[in-house]
Design a protein that fits this description.
CATH class of the largest domain: Alpha Beta
Bound molecules: calcium ion
Radius of gyration: 18 Å
Strand content: 15-25%
Structural class: alpha/beta
Shape: globular
CATH topology of the largest domain: Rossmann fold
Number of domains: 2
Length: about 240
Amino acid sequence: MEILIVEDEAEIAKLIQLTLEAEGFSCRIGRDGLTALQIVREQQPDLIILDLMLPGLDGLEVCARIRQQPGPKDPYILMLTAKGEEIDRVIGLSTGADDYLVKPFSPRELAARVRALLRRSLRQAGATHTYQTQHFIVDLDRRTASRQINGHLAENLDLTTLEFNLLSTFISYPGRVWNRTQLIDKLWGDDFFGDERVVDTHVARLRKKIEPDPTNPTFIKTVVGVGYKFEDPGG
Ligand code: CA
């Protein structure tokens, strides 16, 4: 797996490179947008870590150009943003980024996000149809979901189709922040008409079925002003 790091701050770029090389990935660094686009054309990385604030072309512009001129590989794009920048704009569907990470982030968090993205690419190639975390197993073929307690299978979860799809979406990508539009797109696609707050209703129902304490969720966290994310502590 080839990863391109696009970041003008040399120390951050180096830190990312060391983190990902320790995970066994091969990395290149591009220090500005135009160099990055050239490397994308020539080397076709699998994943691009793209800083939003770059000299010359900014990260959004680089992202848009990569998506406009798809090569043989359509790389995953993980956008880096500083706190206080318009996160909504970055994670909006229109940017074409697959995920984003807010600076400052820990190397561990970065590595987890990268692994999640690249696992997703393996899944899309049909490598596996089961998601497993510390507390949950979701089998997409059998359409079953179960919860584990202390490593033992505790119970099959009795979920509606919509709840199952919602849980699958969350668990396919632990740590990712989803806004309501993105969840609607996943769950209903173009068939959706109505108020996007309906997402909140389904999240509340799913929480009642999977959370030990639905009023103080462990797994499906609210991200204020944005939407939701799934986390499984320890897994
Ligand atoms: Ca920067």
